[in-house]
Design brief:
8 strands
Length: 344
């Protein structure tokens, strides 16, 4: 059930990556200006990039970890995961290495960011509530063994009905969740009703689908369907007092980011962080709690049948969710193959 939000509708101003009024006067680029309106999160497994851009939080996924695990700079993390998993003949050896690898990158990231890291559950478990919950709890146990509290961890789960139900159970036990691969309004409503900590609605994948569907090379910024989707979700959450935070994710260009200034959080790849940092000027807030509370968005009751039907009615969301799950699973399998080929 929804509860009242803080007056800003965003995380506390204390230690959240935003900057004070004195610093505002010295701003020279869009990235620093953007920090005034939204918490900046790095969407990468590149630890050096995280150190360079000083985000509040960081998010990872199997594709990002696969890329980082093949980088010579981070072979030590891979080797440590292999060593921690123990004897290779064990039936669950590969799975154990992957868990240690994901947590290993998470630990390295948490040494650099003041906030949280998102660690993703296997995409193959996206339609299994019990297995998703069990995997999430194992991640938390591994972080706990490393002395890292659950307040610094977000368990990243695909926004299927089953994944949302697993997140609901985890949240009741104080395990915070980031619901990802979110494309439809039905997914967003179900996540808020379940009381999840955070959602990551994807922008560029929505944009890409509509661009292909319309047979055009580009869609004007003021018509961007990915930006419109996140805006609608933000307005719904703030108007009806949900505590679930909205983190815009998966961007193709900087205008998609600046057009969502004011969103609770924005998770951004290093290349776009660099472009924002290299662009002089300020960024105005585009999303505000005050405006959201006067929006025309209406309350949408949602049970399982309504969720499945409304999500099914959205061809883009149905296709992109399935595609995203397959892609993350494929990269998890590539990671497993990479591990299997390591010298014994």
């Amino acid at each position: 059930m929804p509860t009242s939000t803080a007056s800003t509708g965003r995380p506390s101003a204390t230690g959240n990556g935003r900057i004070d009024a004195g610093t505002v006067n010295r701003m020279t680029n869009q990235l620093e200006s953007l920090r005034q309106h939204s918490v900046i999160v790095a969407d990468t497994g590149d630890i050096d990039a995280i150190a360079r851009f000083r985000p509040q939080d960081a998010t990872t996924n199997p594709s990002l970890i696969l890329k980082a695990a093949q980088d010579p700079r981070y072979q030590r993390i891979l080797q440590a995961a292999v060593a921690a998993a123990g004897a290779r003949p064990a039936a669950d050896w590969s799975s154990n290495v992957l868990e240690h690898l994901f947590v290993g990158f998470g630990r390295e990231i948490l040494a650099l960011v003041p906030g949280r890291v998102s660690t993703e559950v296997d995409a193959q478990l996206s339609f299994d509530t019990a297995a998703t919950e069990a995997k999430a709890r194992r991640f938390i146990e591994r972080y706990d063994a490393a002395g890292i509290g659950r307040d610094r961890i977000l368990i990243k789960i695909a926004s299927t009905w089953e994944g949302i139900r697993a997140a609901e159970r985890l949240e009741r036990d104080g395990i915070h969740c980031n619901l990802t691969l979110l494309f439809s309004f039905a997914q967003a409503v179900a996540c808020a009703d379940a009381g999840v900590t955070l959602i990551s609605p994807f922008v560029c994948r929505i944009y890409d689908w509509y661009r292909k569907s319309r047979g055009v090379d580009d869609i004007p910024a003021d018509e961007d369907p990915g930006v419109a989707s996140v805006t609608r979700i933000y307005e719904y959450y703030k108007k009806f007092g949900y505590r679930t935070q909205v983190m815009g994710a998966s961007f193709r260009k900087t205008t998609q980011i600046t057009d969502l200034a004011g969103c609770d959080l924005l998770t951004i790849s290093p290349d776009l962080l660099q472009k924002l940092a290299a662009t002089p000027g300020s960024v105005a807030a585009r999303l505000t709690v005050e405006a959201a509370r006067t929006s025309s968005v209406e309350r949408m009751p949602l049970d399982e049948a309504a969720f499945r039907w409304q999500h099914n009615e959205d061809a883009m969301a149905t296709e992109k969710l399935a595609e995203g799950i397959r892609a993350f699973d494929a990269d998890t399998r590539r990671l497993a193959a990479l591990i299997a080929d390591l010298p014994a």
